Amino acid sequence: MGRLDGKVAFITGAARGQGRSHAVRLAEEGAAIIAVDLCEQIPSVFYPLATKDDLDETQRLVEAAGGRIVTAVADVRDRDALQAAYDEGAREFGYIDVILPNAGIMPVLGPGFEEQAWHDSIATMLTGVWHTLEVAVPPLIARGQGGVVIITSSSAGLSSIGLNTAPGQAAYVAAKHGVVGLMRLYASQLAKHSIRVVTVHPTGVNTPMVVNQGYDEFMQANPEAMNNPNYKNPMPVELIDPVDISNAIVYLASDEARYVTGVTFPVDAGYLNR
Ligand SMILES: NC(=O)c1ccc[n+]([C@@H]2O[C@H](COP(=O)([O-])OP(=O)(O)OC[C@H]3O[C@@H](n4cnc5c(N)ncnc54)[C@H](O)[C@@H]3O)[C@@H](O)[C@H]2O)c1
Fold first, then answer.
1. How remote is the C-alpha of 14 from its chain's centroid?
2. What was the pLDDT predicted at 216?
3. CA 208 to CA 206: how far, in whole Å?
């Protein structure tokens, strides 16, 4: 018996990285998965985003874990496209009760794209999260059986230590703080429906967002960032693994956490407690 038997999870940014790990880990615990990803490049992002092949690989891994999955290509910046993806999943599984707005970008460098980097970051990680809530929450309320929304923020959603004011990074901090406000608002509004809303706050995670050539070059060119003790985890780990976040999400999505709502949940090797 799995800890999430009978649940259906809607996950954005699920083609790779943490989103893929959540899809596989939740499937291992018995959940059915609707996996959504852009599968296209955003020009202001300096590292390659996921492809349709990556999303297909998520499907293969979920099925190998014994799970059921529907995949959809959609941009969280586009509410209508996200609605179509949601509808496709809901048609297949009948309902959705776990919502994971996870899609994200980090256009830290983007020379020549500075202004655009700001807009793309806010559109993906703040407006995109709001779109996900607007699409997925009304059917949860209508169903009347509770549910949970777990928004992926970041340690940069509770602190700005170690970060700089490059437009992409400033927007990243603003969006990741912004979703904490959204979480608090929706958590208080939805409590009477037994719908829980929380944020998770990972420290650096070993995914292509931060493990790529462009990010390495940025860190080499900015030794003050690389050597900044504030940029390091107190626990002896440079990057944690996607499954470390997935395991927290399994707990938060499960009935074990049935009265946990309105909280900011760090998975950060002590980063925020310095
Ligand atoms: N990796 C880290 O160090 C770290 C730390 C804290 C928080 N986060 C957050 O975790 C989440 C997952 O990131 P990750 O580390 O797995 O990175 P990742 O780049 O591997 O995965 C992000 C996924 O989101 C997708 N995506 C991007 N823009 C999209 C859009 N507009 N619509 C739909 N899909 C889109 C990408 O194609 C990609 O598959 C993000 O919100 C990120 O900000 C990451």
1. 9
2. 82
3. 7
Topology given in CATH for the domain delimited by 8-254: Rossmann fold (3.40.50)
Mutation test residue for ligand 1: of 34, 120, 205, 241, the one with most atoms within 8 Å of CB: 205
Is residue 86 flagged as an active site residue?
no
- The tens digit of pLDDT for each residue in 131-144 reads 999 999 999 999 99
Residue with tokens 């050597």: 227
What lies within 8 Å, CB to CB, of 192 at 6+ separation is none
- The whole-number average pLDDT for the span 224-253 is 89
Residue 245 pLDDT more than 80? yes
Mean per-residue pLDDT over the chain, rounded = 94
Question: Annotated catalytic residue: which of 172, 186, 251, 271?
Answer: 172
Question: Is 274:162 a contact under the CB 8 Å cutoff?
Answer: no
Which ranges in 39-143 belong to alpha helices (H)?
Answer: 52-64, 79-93, 114-122, 128-143
Note whether 146 and 157 are within 8 A (CB). no
User: How many Å apart are CA 216 and CA 236, to the nearest integer?
Assistant: 20
Q: φ, ψ for residue 177 (rounded to 5)?
A: -70, -40
Complete DSSP assignment for 221-238: H-HHHHT-GGGS-SSS-S
- In the chain, the percentage of residues whose pLDDT exceeds 90 is 83
- Please say whether the beta carbons of 35 and 69 come within 8 A: yes
To which H or E segment does residue 245 belong? helix 242-253
Answer yes or no: are the C-beta atoms of 238 and 219 closer than 8 Å: no
Q: Of all atoms in ligand 1, which is nearest to the CA of residue 176?
A: 43
The whole-model pTM stands at 0.97
Taking the C-alpha atoms of residue 92 and residue 153, their distance in angstroms, rounded to an integer, is 29
